[in-house]
């Protein structure tokens, strides 16, 4: 049986921005991230939500707080019919409320003067909708496994992604398959964050959805990038210029602030030049970072013992800034948001400073297509201001990557370590993604064809379908996982208490198969409560059957039907008028069913533990009890017995002969059904059967026919055992007659219950 997993990029397919991926498998739908495209406004920047039915989405996983991964979340949760659950890490939820609140403010400012909120395409949600969305978010810690108890067995856990504070990868297990979604991740430890971690304690995932932001580009060393970053800033301000560093309010900004504060501290001649962190969220953002310092690297954690590493000595926080009145007559450094220069303070300062060649703009992160930050990196002669007028671009524009995305070498090594069976590239420009795919295919071409992973780079709205064969396997656990002990093996007995024996190939396993959310295990009944949430229970049934015959009659009928019946007797507490003189008699048929007679006048009680075997035996006993009251033998046995012992003995012998004759007649009937001429003679418990075949029924034309004589003598009619002898010249005929007789004898014998 085959299952199809469908993965569809609703955003960041052959582009960077509006990360959102739809995963469906075994009736479960998962949405991975829910961002906006920084290069477009309003509805145009949303993922392609028209390709998904929000009501069908079971869970939405957000990897980190950047706008291109989370900014359309309130729109999707509040303005669609989405009713699923949302998960992200603690720091992501804390920061997302700040960032999306600031993003809403910028959307409103851009809408027009007065800042009046509207419900049109330019403003994606209101403050109330944002708060309602945040209230629905559920939290997940790193390495915490969430099990949603869905039929597909969906469960997932978060891994540190290293990209920003609280960034997570998600390792998803669904329908017996596994998917690792990296989101944005960094394999390089910086001044405050740890590097991303590899998934541990898990086999290689079936699918890896991985970013490809930088394609085959290789970053310069961190020391080289820091030197270039600080050197460029020093050159600008030393020349009397003003340096603008557009950043997002949270994320890379904190890393850059740590670098520049340390550089100013080590260079006293620069300390008279102010550094501003222009953000309404500045103080709140730093409080968030201080709160979650335990999730940062060892360097920050050790500094927290001495003080707050985010309490900067040479950086001033500007909660509010009016660009028109801002005193920028001398050199200064300003960190301002947003990082793509599409609006806000960073755009206003850029428009004001771009015409002066002494000034500079330093792009320190990845610049998305269709944004001003990306446009000025190509050094155009003119740019269009926020008001729509054209002005010359005379200031210095430089780019130093601190975007905390993996480069080609880091990405390739991570993919090789994870060793997935299928790779899906997302979050990258088409050209960069294509180069990465080509490099990976060149690497995997060295492997045998059956060991090469598939590699896909789907554009937005294009499905990737992966076909998986449904696995049929079960884990043997508990006592069943131990090898069976051979009583004759002294060595096994000696070692039994020392170590658990491993099962051997060919050992039989008999237990209870428990399947829960596509995971199966076989356990012994006594281990059921240890390894599963189930408990062993039983249902006992009791049925009162009308019975007016004698216990002797019931004993005879039970003895003919079943072998090895255990019989116990007990005296009656109170004499019951007309009840049998034998007292209370209990017949135990194996360990399955009991028949109690004599306890209540005119009633036989059948008790059994409900099970397939027990139910069948109980049904046959009930029918047997009903039949025992109306048969000829019952009428005879319930009559007044004769007190003459000799006559009684002769009657017992006659009963035995009559029963034996019934069995012998059954043998005669079975032989007559197979052979045309069968003659029978009966003598007490012995029967002789003469089977004749005409010449036409034999292989030899000269033969006058064959005669086969079979003798059946019942040694113990109550036990059903009989001695069978067959004499015949033709061995084949003799075998057929012998087989027929033995089958009839076995069928007429009482059923063995032990």
Q: Care to describe what's here?
A:
There is one protein chain. The protein has 754 residues and is of the alpha/beta class. It is elongated. The two termini are 41 Å apart.
Labels describing this entry:
754 residues, alpha/beta, 7-stranded mixed beta sheet, 36 strands, 30% helix, elongated
Task: Detail the topology: elements first, then pairings.
Blueprint: E1 2-11, E2 20-25, E3 28-32, E4 59-61, H1 67-70, H2 73-78, E5 85-88, H3 90-111, H4 127-136, E6 137-139, E7 145-147, E8 155-160, E9 168-174, E10 177-181, E11 207-211, H5 222-238, E12 242-246, H6 252-266, E13 275-278, H7 282-291, H8 298-304, E14 315-318, E15 332-336, H9 344-353, E16 360-363, H10 372-376, E17 382-384, E18 390-392, E19 396-399, H11 408-418, E20 422-426, H12 430-444, E21 454-456, E22 464-469, E23 475-476, H13 490-495, E24 512-516, E25 519-523, H14 528-531, E26 540-546, H15 551-561, E27 562-563, E28 566-570, E29 584-589, E30 593-600, E31 603-609, H16 612-628, H17 632-637, H18 645-674, E32 677-683, E33 686-693, E34 706-716, E35 721-727, H19 731-748, E36 751-752
Parallel strand pairs: 3-4, 4-5, 5-6, 10-11, 11-20, 12-15, 12-16, 13-14, 13-15, 16-19, 20-21, 23-25, 27-36
Antiparallel strand pairs: 1-2, 1-22, 2-3, 7-8, 8-9, 9-10, 17-18, 24-25, 26-31, 28-29, 29-30, 30-31, 32-33, 33-34, 34-35
Helix pairs in contact: 3-4, 3-7, 15-16, 18-19
